[in-house]
Amino acid sequence: MTKFIIRILVLSLLLVFPLNAQIKKIGVPFITNYNPKTYKAASENWDVLQNSKGMMFFANHFGILQFDGVRWNIVTQPENRSMVRSMAIDKNDKIYVGAQGDFGFTTQLPNGQYQYTSLVKLLPNSEQNFGDVVHTVIRSNDIVFFSYEGIFIYKNNKIKVLRSKANFEEFFEVNKEIYVLDNTKGLLQLKNDALVPVANGEKFAGMKIRKILETENGLLLLTQKNGLFIFKENQIKPFVTEADHLLKQNQISVAIEFSDGYIGIGTRQTGLIVLDRSGHLIQHINKQMGLQNEYVTNLKVDKEGNLWVTLKEGISLIQISSPLSRILDTSNSETKIYCSQIYQNKLYIATDNGLFWLDWQAYKNGKRENANFRHVAGMSENVWNIGVFGNSLLAFEKNGIFEVSGNAAQIIAKTDGAWKGILIPNHPDLLLVGGYNGLYLLKKINNSWVYQHKIKGFEESSRVIETDTNGNIWIAHGYKGIFKIQFNTTFDAVSKVEFYNQKNGFPSSLFLNTFKIDDQILFGTTKGVYKQNPASDRMIPDPVFKNYLGLKSHIRLLKSDNQNNIWYISGENTGKMTRKTNGGFDVEELPFRKLRYLYVPGFENIQTTADGDVFFGTQDGLIHYNAIKNKKYQTKYKALISEVKCIFPKDSLLFSSRYDVLPNKGKFNDEKLSPVLAYSNNALHFSFSSLFYDEADATEYEYWLEGFEPKWSEYSLQTEKEYTNLPENEYVFHVRAKNIYGIVSEEALFKFEISPPWYRTIWAYILYFILYSVVIYLIIRYQKSVAERDRQQLILSQEKELLRSRAELNEQRLTMEQENMEIMRENLEATINLKNAKVASNTVNLIHLNEILLSIKELIGQMDKKNDANVNFSLLARINKLIDHELQGDKHWNEFEEIFNQLHDNFMQRLKTSYPELTPRDMRLCAYLRMNFNTKEIAPLLGISVRGVEDTRYRIRKKLQLPSDANITEFILNF
């Protein structure tokens, strides 16, 4: 039932955590540092990329730095010899380069050389003054080069330049969209080769954003000094993380989103910080954790899932996809580790400098600022083993047996060295301790272990001890054999000793071990796993382990874990045997190939816990394994021929990517390089490598010179091969690699031919015979070439004349088109002037007419007051009504409004749409204000007094919601 529950839990974890190479939270990934002395170039590196073959390239201060897994070379430089700041690569492996004051592209020639072409020459002289091109991006059909002074868009062999009144701040590519941060305008987006403001983009001005990532919660903004922010729905909110104190104090320089959603953040002063989607701190890798420099300039993940980190000084490779990591002690107090044990939430390690402990729970939860291994007082020499017996943690040291409590250890028994302790079967209160010269007995009294005595009758070194179900004690002596002993009833003396070695069936008496698996005693030998045959009492190969581990390797360790798996160390390989439902096993070795040659010989140790943690004690510290991680080991990669040169009479390079080493650059134009060499150059030197960077030093190679050797060589670490005195023939040099995971690469080929010496050629005998024929042929060929040249010259002259005629016709056509455009422009201006005049004339006539009507109305009013006769009253009233009707001027107003809207871009309609509460009289007043009429000119047009005009203006101001200090005329003119 317990096993079933454990399997369900493991399956649940596999479903919760995706198997796409999550970065481990426990421990620090393996880091390989490459310093300037290693790659022999400048210390500063700014960018990194990988081509389709797997080759790594770095933007170095001295140029483009190439790494093929073995050798580092500067392969090209910009034309101005400046530093390279950024790179991008297309599907054809053309590398676009951004440098200091230069940008262009580089391609590889058939002879291995890289040829750089500058694109700055396409710019006019006025645009050639710029600084570092810090970003280079390939976008569909164009290339974008970004500098702080300008953006250069290369397309169809032309360059468009985008400038800013102030300098640009940063450049971002977010989900195939390009954004630019302007110092004054804020965030802009590059669309259709133009910078378009982003809604509320001015909010970003001055934020010093260093990276923008797209998340499900909006855009994640990473600023240089102010931490992280989320931008969503035009709002910027802080994104609080567990690493805010690190990010704000140490300046973010670059960031990358990993495939599992984790975010890697490079800083200027504290290395690499990895966060999850919720802001939890997953990793903090700085100089103390193995990074050679704290200033991170760029981050890229290669095809194998490794993280390349370019630094202000050096390059680091972090193997984030590996399930193995190192439990580092920043105080560097531990060295060789002989054993590890988790006890009361503390991780203890036994080393050659004493016993140390670490707060495991805090370390596992990511609290590592003060999570250093601390020395356990009382022990300072070799601690061989530690174990939990009952409720006590005991340590077995050079000077005796110790009980560990917290930060201190107290000696229980002072002996001549203690190796290991083991409980006696059916006696949980008795502890048997193997020492340098025999066995010791401890007894548990009042929950404390008390030393009793040394057991008489056995004086051999007892470092490897196991007990069987019958109470027998099995002791392995590495140089003698296996002892099987029994005690008397008082456990103070040995009553019986049986000895087994090569005479009893073992393949050798040397390097024997004993293990207990499934309550069965097994033996590790130099040729597989053995067990005792009860019938014959002889040692025979165990059939189960023979099937899975064979009989050729030295079995150094077998151990079961809480999940019923069996861990083993066989030869140099570490592996795990997982039980299947049918009773068989699945064997897994590839994840543990890194552990080769790391164990302390003879003290190999693997510690497993109920939580699934697995610890390996090595000469290089404590290594942790996480079974949840799923790295792909069967990936394809390529072998590479780095350089080919002739040795005699002097070194002459035939193929090389090293910068400027081939004297005849571009000599070979064939798609595949297949040089034909003179017989005097029949000694060649080949350098080769593989484009696999995980433990590159452990990659092995085999080679074969077809045409000279009958078969492939044996695998070796050799990366060079030399051949001398090769006879004339056609040859093909083959090379392929095998990485630490046993995966064989695609092979690389180099074809060449060695010509025979001149005295063994047929040409030496027929040379004079054909010389005359060659001369005649050359003369005829010369005459034909002269005639052909004259014919081509005539054709060329005719083509030039035709082109000149076409150019003249085109010029005439352009001139006529310009004249037509000028005539159309003049007609348009005349039409506009005519309409303007008509409007002005109508307006003046309207004003004059209204003035006359007002005067008539005033006179009639006076007549009405002076005349008492009723005869004229009706007539005067009708005249007055007619005048009022004329003052309304609807007919004239409609004609005026139509022309007015044509001239002023539908002013009346736009105004009515924006402010529907305006009355027709209000609209008329606004139209007169638009024509810049004053109050006195407007009064007669509206048929009201000047005071009435002022009142109307006041009402309109209220409807337009203008502040008291705003000028209504200015508002109308600008509407």
- How far apart are the first and last residues' alpha carbons, in Å? 81 Å
According to CATH, the fold-level topology of the domain at 337-625 is: Methylamine Dehydrogenase, Chain H
- Which CATH top level class of the domain at 337-625 fits? Mainly Beta
Give the % helix: 10-25%
How many individual helices?
A: 13
Large-scale geometry: flat
Q: What's the architecture of the domain at 337-625 in CATH terms?
A: 7 Propeller
Mean pLDDT: 87
| Tally of strands | 65
Strand portion: 35-45%
State the major sheet. 5 strands, antiparallel
Q: Can you offer a commentary on this structure?
A:
Helices cover about 25% and strands about 40% of the residues. The chain is flat, with a radius of gyration of 45 Å. Strand 31 and strand 32 form a beta hairpin. The strands form 16 sheets. The chain has a five-stranded antiparallel β-sheet, with no helix packed on it. It has a four-stranded antiparallel β-sheet with strand order 2-29-28-27. Among the domains are: about 130 residues, 7 Propeller (Methylamine Dehydrogenase, Chain H); about 290 residues, YVTN repeat-like/Quinoprotein amine dehydrogenase (Methylamine Dehydrogenase, Chain H), CATH 2.130.10.10; about 120 residues, Immunoglobulins (Immunoglobulin-like, Sandwich), CATH 2.60.40.10. The protein is built from 13 helices and 65 strands. It is α+β, with helices and mostly antiparallel strands and about 1000 residues long. The N terminus is likely disordered. Helix 6 runs antiparallel to helix 8 and helix 6 crosses helix 11. The chain starts with a helix and ends with a helix.
